Amino acid sequence: MSDIPTQIKYTKSHEWVEILDDGTVRIGITDHAQDLLGDMVFVELPEVGDEIIAGEESAVVESVKAASDVYSPLSGEITAINEAVTETPEIVNQSPYEGGWLFELKPSAETEIDDLLDADAYNELAEADSH
Amino acid sequence: MKQTVLHPEHVKLDAKMVDFGGWHMPINYGSQIDEHHQVRTDAGMFDVCHMTVVDLHGDGVRDFLKHLLTNNIDKLEVSGKALYTCMLKENGGIIDDLIVYYMTDTWFRMVVNASTREKDIAWIEKHAADYAVDVNERDDLAMIAVQGPNARAKANAALGAEATAKCEGLKPFVAVDHAGLFIARTGYTGEDGYEIIMPNEQAPALWQALLNKGVKACGLGARDTLRLEAGMNLYGSDMDESITPLVSGLAWVVALEPADRKFIGRDVLEAQAAEGNHDQFIGLVLTERGVLRNHQKVFAGGELVGEITSGSFSPTLGHSVALARIKHSIKDSCEVDMRGKLVTVRIVKPPFVRKGKSCLV
Fold first, then answer.
1. Across the interface, do B291 and A93 touch by the CB < 8 Å criterion?
2. Are A39 and B339 within 8 A, CB to CB?
3. Which residues of B touch A67 (CB under 8 A)?
C-alpha cells in the first residue's frame, strides 16, 4: 500500500506536483513509482533556467532495475533543482515527497494545473497498476 | 504460481514478491542494494528451493555423464566433490549449465536451473535410457544458499556442533552429508559460503535458525547483482540453446581431453574452435553515470559488433558493469548505445569483484 498525500496533485505517469506559496511548483515521483523502480542509483536533473514543456522528459531516475524518464507535469522555467538527490539517489526511495523532490518550476500555463489528478484519482490508478 | 516451502517466511518478512519463471519468489526484502552489501561484508541467505535437484543412480551413471556433459566427471575423485559444467544439444547449443556432485560410483547428484526444469529432465531421461540410469527428480528437497565472508561461521552456529565438526576443513566445491543435510561449499555470489540441501520439512527451521544467528534474508535481485559482479553467467540471459560455451566465456568447462570422450555437442565445438574468429564473451565497465542493460547494442568504429547479455549497477563498485558477446577482434574499449547515446566503455576480463574486493585495475 503506497503513501499518497492528499494536499498535492498527481499525474498518470506517477509524478507529483506541490504548489508552493510563491506560485512556483515542486515536482517529484510518487511513492508508488519509487517502489516499482526499486533502489535508485542515478538521478539526472534539468538545469535551472531550462524552459520545460508539459509532458516532455525533463529528468531521469535510474534504479538497479531500470531507467525511467520523468515527464514534467507542467510547462515553465526551472527555478530550482534538488542536488541532494543527484549526490544521494536513495533519498528518492526513502522520502519521495519530502527530501526526494526533483525540481521546481515557475508554471507558464496555469490552466495545466487543472488537468492534474487529485489523490483519490491517483490512488485508483496506482491500485489498478498494482494488480 | 508455484511456491517454495519457504514462501510463508518471505511473507512474514514482508518481502516484495515477483513471478520468477512461474515461481512466486522474493525479489527483495526492502533494499536490494543493502542485501547485496550484506553478502559482500557479512552473511546473507537466499531461498533457492526453486532450483532442481536430480539424483542419477545406476551402474552406467559414470559413462552416461561422460556422454551428457561438457566437463569431464572423471576429474571428480573424492565423494562430495562438485564440478561446474554445461549440457549441450547436438548442435552445441547450451541446454543448461549445472553443478554435478560425485557421491558414489553408482550415484551422482545434479543441481540444474529452475527455469529449465522440464526440458532438462526430458533431455536427461531421453539419454539415460541407453545407460540403464535412473533419473530421480528430488521434489522432496529444499535448498538455502548462505553466502558472505561470515556465512560459514554463522551457518555453523545455526547448524550445531556436530555439523560444524563435519564441515571443518571442507574445501571449496566439495559437499558433505550430515544427518540428512547436504552441505556444499559452493555458491553464486563470488563469496565463501554454503549451499545447503535438505528435506523440505527441515527448511523453515533452518531458515529461522540462520536468521537468529544474524544471517539476513536476501532476494533474487541481490543474487543477480552479486553473480554479475562475480562474472558468473545466468542461463537465459548470457547463454541459451542458440549459443555454444565457446562464445559464452565457458570454454573452461569444456574438457576436450581425453580426445576419445564423445560428449554431446563435441563435434560442433571442435569445428568452432578450429575455425577460430568466433565471438568473445567479455566484461564491460562504465565509470560514468548510467547503467548498462541487457540487450543494449555494442559498437566499435561505428559498426555493430555485439550485444550486452547481462548489465546492471554494481553496488560494490558504485558504477555499472556488464557481460557482453562481441566480435573477436575488438579490444580495450567499445561503445554502447545507451538510450540513444553512444557511450564509451572499457573491455575487461570478468570477474569484476571477488571476495568483496574490486578486480579492476
1. no
2. no
3. 290-291, 293, 339
Catalogue all structural domains in chain A, each as residue range(s) with its CATH number.
9-126 (2.40.50.100)
Q: Which CATH architecture has domain B279-358?
A: Beta Barrel (2.40)
pLDDT number for residue A131:
61
With b for 16 or more beta-carbon neighbours within 10 A and e for fewer, the B90-113 pattern comes to eebbbbbbbbbbbbeeebbbbbbb
- Out of A38, A44, A66, the one facing B221 most closely (by C-beta) is A38
Please tell me what DSSP assigns to residue A110: G
Question: Has residue A130 got a pLDDT over 80?
Answer: no
* Contact check, Cβ <8 Å, B32/A90: no
Check if CATH label 3.30.420.10 holds for domain B1-272: no
User: CA of B312 to nearest chain A CA: how many angstroms apart?
Assistant: 6
Q: Where are the domains of chain B?
A: 1-272, 279-358
- Predicted complex ipTM: 0.87
**In Å, how far are B19, B141, B168, B179 from B54, measured between CA atoms?**
23, 10, 27, 19
State pTM to two decimals.
0.95
